[in-house]
Amino acid sequence: MIFVGVELISHVPSVLHTPLMSGANAIHGVVLIGAIIVLGKAQPNDYFSLIIGFVGVVVGTLNVIGGFVVTDRMLEMFKKKPKK
Fold this sequence. Notes:
By secondary structure, the protein is an all-alpha fold.
C-alpha cells in the first residue's frame, strides 16, 4: 500500500494538493474528535481505553498539524515573489 500511495500521490497535479490536504485535514479532525470521545467515555480503571484514546488524540493532533503545515507550504509555492 505504501507503493500504491506514493504512485498515486506522484501523479496528482500540484494544483490539487491543497484541496486534497484540506480534505485530509477534515478527516483527521473527525478522527481527533472520535478519540476525544473515547477518552471522555472511558472508565477511570479501564487503562486500555484510556491509552487508546490518548494515543488517538496525540496521533490525530499530529496529523492535523502536519496537514496544515503541508498546506501552508503548498500555498507558499503559488505566491508571487516580490520584485527586487
